[in-house]
Amino acid sequence: MNSVISKTMAARGASLKLANITTNKKNTALLKIASTISKNKKALLRANAEDVENAERLLAQGKLSKAFVQRLKLSEHKLRDIAEMVRSVARLEDPVGRTLYAMELDRGLELYKVSCPIGVIGAIFEARPDVLPQLSALCLKSGNAVILKGGKEAKRSNEAFFELIRSATERTGIPRGWIQLIEARREVRELLKLDEHIDLLVPRGSKEFVKYIQANTSIPVLGHTEGVCHIYVDREADLRQALNVCYDSKVQYPAVCNAVETLLVHRGIAKRFLPSLAKRYKEAGVEIKGCERTRKILRNIKKATETDWKTEYLDLVISIKIVGSVDEAIGHINTYGSKHTDAIITKNRKTALKFLTGVDSSSVMLNASTRFSDGYRYGLGAEVGIATGKIHARGPVGLDGLTTSKYYLLGEGQTVATYLGPTAKRFVHRRLSKRWSDIAHTLKEQ
């Protein structure tokens, strides 16, 4: 049996046990992960430094971008954030075992719909070392086994995190084999064939990468694609507020999917707003591209092309278009956007409502930076990624996105024949206030 199949089978076996692990045991394991990361900062930074050194060599050869190398780097501050993220997942309510629906079908015949883990998650992600502990923490709390494949550029960082997490969780009683790591690219192709053993694939990377995964597997795929994010600055915007939000959305961390890539500015305020914004952007090293009307206000900037409106720069580059109305802004976003995150800056509540309900994206914001679109900031503890599709999960995907449901029907010997024919007994179909956890406790005690 090859290594991919053996690892997948081990994960499948562990997932069946993990589905029934108590909340306390899962939380204990998560807190152990957090403390282990905190205690092993030096080892993690050493492993990451090797990855960064190799990546910078490739950057000098023109084979990697600055944004890529930036995402790869760890620091003591980032490690503190990662440990706190794991602790925040431990503090969240357990998504498993929640009663979603309870119905009395008839006397002595009760139906419960209950949340449960999906099973085995295959996670294939880009070279960002913080992704591995995020995914691991979310899968553990939601009762799922996980098979991880990170970008080769973060090989040593991923191995270091994996070994720490595996060791820490096994010491607290989490089933052995619940977390697996594969490293070779050929192993991904093998993984895509294992539809009988893997329940969900979560790819994180470029749009082309996600499409490749979707086209080459029959396993359900939770797609997380690019972020072509917009901000529309309305004619009734608070311009100081708009200046700060537009700056933060681009400059605070440009190498991520929720950074703004296109600004749409109402023609009524463009001459007052754009020079001030351009000054701040120039000081931060942002390259501006603009439509013809924008270039009449901001001299010596490049012309924005049709391609620019569709581009996720992930860098200090932004395209600007002057529009005549909120409707034109909505139309542009729904045409060129990636359904990720888009924002409006305005004091007019009716205009805000039109934008919020008219833009077809997973997160739509009023007077706030697009950088808020994040599982941790949304209070989800962490995120598997940002889902831009509409099936199963949308937006930042946290614990709920890693659960499904099952029905429990509790009877006393009833048969369907009783409810058919001319003398059929009628169903009661009465909502119950009972919780499945109480029923399960009662069954356990009997």
Topology readout:
Blueprint: H1 3-18, H2 23-39, H3 41-60, H4 66-72, H5 76-91, E1 99-106, E2 109-117, E3 120-125, H6 131-141, E4 145-149, H7 155-171, E5 179-181, H8 185-191, E6 200-204, H9 207-215, E7 229-233, H10 239-251, E8 260-266, H11 270-283, E9 287-290, H12 292-297, E10 302-303, H13 306-309, E11 317-323, H14 326-336, E12 341-345, H15 349-358, E13 363-366, E14 385-387, E15 395-397, E16 403-410, E17 430-431, H16 436-445
Parallel strand pairs: 3-4, 3-6, 4-5, 7-8, 7-12, 8-11, 9-10, 9-11, 12-13
Antiparallel strand pairs: 1-2, 1-17, 2-16, 14-15
Please tally the helical runs, counting DSSP H or I stretches of 4 or more residues.
16
**Low-confidence parts:** none
Main pleated-sheet profile: 7 strands, parallel
CATH class of the largest domain: Alpha Beta
CATH superfamily of the largest domain: Aldehyde Dehydrogenase, Chain A, domain 1
Rg, alpha carbons: 25 Å
Beta-strand share of residues: 15-25%
For the record, give the distance between the C-alpha atoms at the N and C termini, rounded to a whole number: 43 Å
Classify the helix fraction into a percent range: 40-55%
Beta strand count = 17
- At the fold tier of CATH, the topology name of the largest domain is Aldehyde Dehydrogenase, Chain A, domain 1
Helix/strand class: alpha/beta
Mean pLDDT across residues: 93
Number of domains: 2
